[in-house]
Amino acid sequence: MAFFSVLFGFMPTATAWVSKLLITRWSRRSTRAEKAQNVNAVVFLALIQFGLYAGNSLLQTVRNINQQALQELTAKRVQLMVMRHANRLDLSFFENPEFYDSLSRRNRGAARARWRWSSRYSAWCAR
Question: What does pTM read for this prediction?
Fold first, then answer.
């Protein structure tokens, strides 16, 4: 990742430098003998410019793939850590049916309380 970041830092500079050389060569006034040389130089610089743009696109793709792979590895590592920690916990309390009954009763009671609160609030706002 660090290599790609450093390389991306140099790409705009290299592109600007080649663009400057290309414009300088194109705008140079020359004799007939030098024109063929200038055309060759312009074509060469245009190919370099194209190579820089293609290389930049390729590096961007490789960098994105690398970043996605790193994100997936990190997510899997965190998930594995959570699962290992969950295996160390004593979960027999949660397997008790009375616990689930009391939990579902509390959830239903909380839902009714939210409904009562929202209906009172809407009635108060309607006044």
Answer: 0.53
